[in-house]
């Protein structure tokens, strides 16, 4: 089984669990405003659909490419992936201890550093993105973030 298929299957399982878990979120209002579970369910459905497409495309490939020795580019990519997983683990550990805007901004900045982005434009974008996400969740989706 190809690595892409394994990752897609694991992602589908995780998204299915998140989709079901989103049913426990507060429901919508009587005047038609959707509840807090709408966004995560829509996101999970999109991710599941994309992974199903990836599995189908992987199965349709006729020529299976041979994997050669690991290049420096692959090693660098693997190192970045491990750092991103560590940053995400730190985000999960610090969740609830640090205010969302600060935590999300720092997380995005660390991801930008790992991906070697231009920090002059990335840092303001990270801060604005964190504030925007906070505002949308608090005021539009009625999900309280601390």
Short description:
The protein has 146 residues and is mainly α. Helices cover 70% and strands 0% of the residues.
Description:
The structure is a single chain. The protein is an all-alpha fold and 146 residues long. The protein has 2 domains: 67 residues; 79 residues, no CATH class. Helices cover 70% and strands 0% of the residues. The model has no long low-confidence stretch (mean pLDDT 83). Keywords: Membrane, Transmembrane, Transmembrane helix. It comes from Candidatus Lachnoclostridium stercoravium. It holds the Pfam family TctB. This is Tripartite tricarboxylate transporter TctB family protein.
Total number of beta strands: 0
- Uncertain residue ranges: none
**Which structural category do the helix and sheet elements fall into?**
mainly alpha
Number of separate helices: 5
- What proportion of the residues form beta strands (DSSP E)? under 5%
What is the assembly state of the chains in this entry?
single chain
Distance between the termini: 42 Å
The H/E string reads: HHHHH
Round the mean pLDDT to the nearest integer and report it: 83
Q: Output the radius of gyration.
A: 19 Å
**Fraction of residues in helices?**
55-70%
Largest sheet: none
Q: How would you describe the shape? A: flat
Number of separate structural domains: 2
Keywords: Membrane, Transmembrane, Transmembrane helix
Pfam families: TctB (PF07331)
Transmembrane segments: 38-60, 81-110, 122-145
Domain DUF1468: 6-145
């Amino acid at each position: 089984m190809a690595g892409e298929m394994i990752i897609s299957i694991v992602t589908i399982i995780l998204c299915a669990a998140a989709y079901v878990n989103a049913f426990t979120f507060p429901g919508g209002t009587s005047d038609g405003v959707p509840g807090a579970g709408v966004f995560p369910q829509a996101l999970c459905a999109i991710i599941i659909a994309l992974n199903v497409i990836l599995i189908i495309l992987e199965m349709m490939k006729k020529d299976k490419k041979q994997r050669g020795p690991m290049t420096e580019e692959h090693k660098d990519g693997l190192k970045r992936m491990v750092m991103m997983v560590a940053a995400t683990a730190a985000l999960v550990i610090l969740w609830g201890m640090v205010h969302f805007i600060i935590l999300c901004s720092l997380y995005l900045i660390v991801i930008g550093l790992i991906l070697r982005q231009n920090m002059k434009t990335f840092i303001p974008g990270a801060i604005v993105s964190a504030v925007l996400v906070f505002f949308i969740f608090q005021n539009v989706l009625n999900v309280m973030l601390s």
